[in-house]
Amino acid sequence: MKTKKLLSMILVGAAAVSLLAGCGSDTGNSQADTAQNDTQEDAAQDEAQTGAGDAAGTAASGNVLVVYYSATGNTEEAANTIAATAGGDLFELEPAQPYTDADLDWTDDDSRVSQEYADETLRDVELVSTTVDNWDSYDTVFIGYPIWWGIAAWPVDSFVENNDFTGKTVIPFCTSSSSGIGESGELLADLAGTGDWQEGMRFRSGADEADVQDWVNGLGL
């Protein structure tokens, strides 16, 4: 009798051990499966976010163009910052006959810019090119220039006159040591005759990069 009771106790204990072992195995597998699923989901999300970021960067690069003429490098610096911040492309306006330092000496009445200022017929400055590849693909066009005698440096005029801005948002910007942007943007808009021209921004010569970035980010492009 005692032998049967002892045998029965041994069998019950063995069954309990087996049950606990089985439960432990199931819990371990469940945790492993959960961790694997979480890892896969995280990887999928990371991939989706990366793809979305790449797509956004490509779209911005294809939609924004920064056109600029720079006489001494100040406008070029601002243009580079705008393009980098907005994810845009750059197009530099280059006079076929480049301006020398002597040409830009506005204090000399005989200098090139002084004579062009005095005689408007001399302001038709030929550019190396006014044609932008894939021009129709750009929705937003920044146009940058230094201020000469209160207006946009006239090498910009040739580009504006030779392009159709229909359907484009145009944002002027300028650099100067003291003068404001004035009516330079409005005068260019009148010259263009097409496009949705926005209020422009003036940056001081050697403008702080953060100031330019803050302006661009505030535009909500």
Description:
This protein is an alpha/beta fold and 221 residues long. It has six helices and seven strands. It has helices at residues 2-63, 74-86, 112-118, 155-161, 184-192, 209-218; strands at 64-68, 89-92, 140-148, 151-152, 169-176, 196-197, 201-204. Strands 1, 2, 3, 4, 5, 6 and 7 form a seven-stranded mixed beta sheet that branches. Strand 5, helix 5 (184-192) and strand 6 (196-197) form a beta-alpha-beta unit. Helix 2 crosses helix 6 (209-218). It is globular. The model is unreliable at 1-61 (pLDDT under 50).
- Rounded to an integer in angstroms, the radius of gyration calculated over CA atoms is 34 Å
Percent in strands:
15-25%
Number of helices: 6
Q: Overall pLDDT, averaged? A: 80
SSE ordering: HEHEHEEHEHEEH
Question: How many strand units?
Answer: 7
Low-confidence stretches: 1-61
Overall structural class, as computed from helix and strand content, comes to alpha/beta
Helical content band? 40-55%
- Termini separation (Å)? 90 Å
Write down the overall geometry. Answer: globular
Major beta sheet summary: 7 strands, mixed
Short description:
The chain is an alpha/beta fold and 221 residues long. It contains 6 helices and 7 strands.
Q: How is the secondary structure organized here?
A:
Layout: H1 2-63, E1 64-68, H2 74-86, E2 89-92, H3 112-118, E3 140-148, E4 151-152, H4 155-161, E5 169-176, H5 184-192, E6 196-197, E7 201-204, H6 209-218
Parallel strand pairs: 1-2, 1-3, 3-5, 5-6, 5-7
Antiparallel strand pairs: 3-4
Helix pairs in contact: 2-6
